[in-house]
Amino acid sequence: MDEIRHEAMRGGCLCGAVRFETTLTATESHACHCEICRRWVGSALVCVTVPPDDIRFEGAENIRSYRSSEWAERAWCDRCGTTLYYHLLVGPQNYEVALGTFDAPNGVPMTLEIFIDRKPDGYAFAGDHPRWTKAETEAAFASAGEGT
Ligand SMILES: [Zn+2]
Ligand SMILES: [Zn+2]
Fold this sequence. Notes:
- Helix content is 12%, strand content 33%.
- By secondary structure, it is mostly beta strands.
- It has a single domain (9-140), classed as Metal Binding Protein, Guanine Nucleotide Exchange Factor, Chain A (Beta Complex), CATH 2.170.150.
- A seven-stranded mixed sheet has the order 6-7-8-9-4-3-10. It has a three-stranded antiparallel sheet with strand order 1-2-5, with no helix packed on it.
- Strand 7 and strand 8 (83-88) form a beta hairpin.
- The longest helix has 11 residues, at 134-144.
- The chain is globular, with a radius of gyration of 15 Å.
- It starts with 8 loop residues before the first strand and ends with a helix.
């Protein structure tokens, strides 16, 4: 277990043009298997939720984003194409930062998979955590006032 991640979790893109830092204390990840995430990432989006007031970017001028729905945008590094984050534009406006962009991505257990019935059948994540279907996911987000 890497102690420093509870004080400052740092990360960045492949080419280094975009760097970020968060003082995240709740370190858990979740995976989304929805079709939009699948096409965007090439497989599942595995990400960590970061509140908007707890992330600081360097090289933000290199960040480009795509408005994938009325309620969210998806961002990448314009130099190297690295998937950076899904950003909720409504409600808590959280960032869902791609786990793979963190410098020290270990010790962050996966606690939830959503849209499990949209997952390609050729791969699966290990672990004993909840796996919500599309209907279960949409019901949960509707009650929370969030989109996907
Ligand atoms: Zn880059
Ligand atoms: Zn998704």
